[in-house]
Amino acid sequence: MPKDTKPKIGAPIKASKAQKPPASVESVFLPKSSDLTEDGGPVSVLKSANADFSDLGGNYRAKLHEALARVYAVALFFDRNPDAWQDFCRDPTWATFKGKPPTVIDTTDKLQPTVRFAVGFELPTASKTASKYYAALAYPYQTGVPASDIAAYLETGGGIEELAAKAARKRRNGTLDLNAPPMVSILAPLDEPMRELLRAAPSKGVKFKLSVIKTDGIGEMEIKIHRVSSDKKTSAKPL
Predict the structure, then answer these.
(1) What is the pTM of this model?
(2) Each residue's pLDDT tens digit, 216-227
(3) How many CA atoms lie less than 13 Å away from 17 in the CB half-sphere?
(4) What is the DSSP string of the chain?
(5) Predicted confidence (pLDDT) per residue in 198-212, tens digit
């Protein structure tokens, strides 16, 4: 007769070994809270990301996405911590930046200068690279995607190049929402070219083309506005 293997009442039941839950994305490669809250912590995280950009090695794409997720996490931290943002704006590293560094009153978009700082200022391609990274991250930043989802967002979205190209297409083909806040505000002297622009604006069939002449990738941009005639044979006239 087989021996009864049922545990006796009151006897301890040996539990099966529970499997550990998979490590969260945040615990794998995002900065810890202590990394950000200590003095100079956010800048240290960004400089570490800069070093990672320079030495991604094997599995390049995944490592790039992880590094950008860390940069993104710092931008979200700046959104919640004005004192840390102030320290970042006053960091001595900005002295090597040829453009205009962010200021403590720049409160609308902390992602762009955060990405620009992380990419670095030395390489001639740094501004273009930072603009591309920012374009890929801008939509999740504006819509509140958490940092823990960014690496997956970049991967499933086709990568940096695809997401940046998609953002560029949206800018070119987007419709005008008059209730939305302006993407950029331009302060210009009311000289004759600007008066001509204002006179032409209400006219039907008048289109304008804005061309970026040069930019430092963060604070300053030189643009040229052309009035495009409805006559296709007529070239654009600079204002």
Answers:
(1) 0.62
(2) 555 566 777 766
(3) 1
(4) -PPP-SPPTTSPP-PPPPPPPPPPHHHHHSPPHHHHHSTTHHHHHHHHHHHHHH---SSHHHHHHHHHHHHHHHHHHHHH-HHHHHHHHT-GGGGG-SSPPP-TT--S-SHHHHHHHHH-SSSTTHHHHHHHHHHHHHHHHHHT--GGGHHHHHHHTT-HHHHHHHHHHHHHHPPP-TTSPPS--------HHHHHHHHHTTSTT-EEEEEEEEE-SSS-EEEEEEEEPSSTTSPPEE-
(5) 666 555 555 666 666
